[in-house]
Amino acid sequence: MKKITIAIDGYSSTGKSTLAKQLAKHLGYVYVDTGAMYRAVALFAMQNGYISNEYFDKETLINSIPNIKLHFEFNPELGFAEMFLNDVNVEKEIRTIEVSSYVSKIAEVSQVRSKLVEQQQEMGKNKGIVMDGRDIGTVVFPDAELKIFMTASPETRAQRRFDELQAKGDDVSYEEVLKNVQERDYIDTHRDDSPLVIAEDAIEIDNSYLTREEQFDVVLELVEEVAKSL
């Protein structure tokens, strides 16, 4: 089949990354987790004292963008690429509830978005890529051959995220995770720069009651239909 660009957007904790990894592995495509890139910038801001519950030194972060080096390295044992921040593997650190609480604020910063979108577009110039995030089908790859928009109820997403964090040994409550999901939804859909919206030509999938296998089968069929039509 002809290689295409697959853009997967949607709300937090809808399983975008899981689906994207499955597709990339099955198709032999490159997978890029753009959320990990924003999380890494959030971690950088935290490590340098630019953001906390009380304040956000946005200007200093913007001035520090040239000092933020991001890249992915494939881990054959895990079967996917891990996020590196200034040559340090931060895959585990960026998945905490604390980073989650700041990442949407970081993603609101236009200068950060501009820099990361530029990098993401460069990664996908040769097609054969699966990329997930919030603005992939609308901003990063508006001409993507297949655009998926994933959604599920906040309660369902919070439960999934809670179970995931509990399995990692994180001490969090369901209520705390639900609040984080709802806050991220609001920020993501109300920011001025590239808000989370459904692209006009995107296919919406509500996976509230779908298993990972069912979801994968549905999307893989869409991929095959699109690729064969080219």
Please list the strands of the largest sheet in the order they lie side by side.
Answer: 2-6-1-7-8
User: Structural class of the secondary elements?
Assistant: alpha/beta
**Which spans have pLDDT < 50 for at least 5 consecutive residues?**
none
Shape: globular
The total of helices stands at 9
Topology record:
Elements: E1 5-10, H1 16-27, E2 30-33, H2 34-47, H3 58-64, E3 70-75, E4 80-85, E5 88-89, H4 97-107, H5 110-123, E6 129-133, H6 136-140, E7 146-151, H7 154-167, H8 174-190, E8 203-206, H9 212-229
Parallel strand pairs: 1-6, 1-7, 2-6, 7-8
Antiparallel strand pairs: 3-4, 4-5
Helix pairs in contact: 1-9, 2-4, 2-5, 4-8, 7-8
At a glance:
With 230 residues, this protein is of the alpha/beta class.
3D structure, described in words:
- The chain has 230 residues and is of the alpha/beta class.
- It is 49% helix and 17% strand.
- It has helices spanning 16-27, 34-47, 58-64, 97-107, 110-123, 136-140, 154-167, 174-190, 212-229; strands at 5-10, 30-33, 70-75, 80-85, 88-89, 129-133, 146-151, 203-206.
- The protein has a five-stranded parallel β-sheet with strand order 2-6-1-7-8. It has a three-stranded antiparallel β-sheet with strand order 3-4-5, covered by helices on one side.
- The chain is globular, with a radius of gyration of 17 Å.
- It starts with a strand and ends with a helix.
- The mean pLDDT is 95.
